[in-house]
Design a protein that fits this description.
This protein is α/β, with parallel strands linked by helices and about 220 residues long. It has helices at about 5-40, 75-85, 110-115, 115-120, 150-155, 165-180, 180-190, 205-210, and strands spanning about 55-60, 90-100, 125, 130, 160-165, 200, 215-220. The N and C termini lie far apart (about 90 Å).
């Protein structure tokens, strides 16, 4: 009967350790890669729904650029409700859904320049009277000088959502203007939403969920 070599168990042990170490390294690599991908392309989520607050709630459904008025309507609602009912901001919840052709209003200036969004949407910059290469609506909300999309969210508690379906379609339309693939354009747009904007699966889904959370409906143009 043959006798097992004393080195066999040791070789098995070392091999097992090596395999385990390799699996650990690969696991960490995959985790890190997933974390990086999350930073580059934030996933769609419904976390914004739980942030809708107050007794008085309304969702504004915006389907076109409409001169930027989609961002003004929630302020009109908040201010007039406060005047009429004598409540405070914490008693009022406003949600703006930028869907269809209004979706690009939620993108930063870099995307407007790279993808020539002014040409895609036929929007001119009043400063140059040429197709806009910056988001002219971001810091120029009608009726509210000095108000920006960021302040709308941080200072007044307005929730802004962007339609994921429109993002997919319009970024694909604009991709040739930047000389990139539709997939790359989608990644760029997803990673370059104005900070604080929530990406929803679709605009109609966002409107539905906001109404389910107690918001009355208002068409925002």
């Amino acid at each position: 009967m043959s006798q097992m070599s004393p080195s066999t168990p040791r070789r098995g042990f070392v091999g097992g350790v090596a395999a385990g170490a390799a699996a650990l390294v690969m696991g960490r690599f995959n985790t890190a890669r997933a974390e990086v991908e999350t930073l580059v392309e934030p996933p769609m989520g419904d976390e914004w729904i739980a942030k809708i607050k107050g007794k008085y709630r309304q969702v504004f459904d915006c389907t076109s650029p409409n001169g930027g008025f989609g961002a003004a309507f929630p302020l009109n609602f908040i201010n007039s409700t406060k005047e009429a009912t004598k409540v405070t901001d914490k008693d009022i919840g406003a949600v703006v859904v930028f869907r269809h052709m209004s979706m690009p209003l939620t993108l930063n200036d870099a995307m407007w320049a790279k993808y020539k969004i002014g040409e895609v949407l036929d929007i001119k910059d009043p400063k140059t009277n040429t197709p806009a290469t910056r988001n002219i609506f971001r810091d120029n909300i009608p009726l509210y000088p000095g108000m920006t999309f960021e302040k709308l969210m941080t200072d007044r508690g307005v929730i802004i959502t962007a339609c994921g379906l429109a993002l997919n379609v319009i970024s694909g339309m604009a991709a040739p203007k930047a000389g990139v693939t539709a997939d790359q354009a989608k990644k760029d747009w997803t990673a370059n939403l104005i900070p604080g904007v929530a990406l929803a699966a679709s605009g109609v889904y966002a409107v539905n969920r906001a109404q389910g959370a107690g918001c009355t409906y208002c068409y925002g143009g």
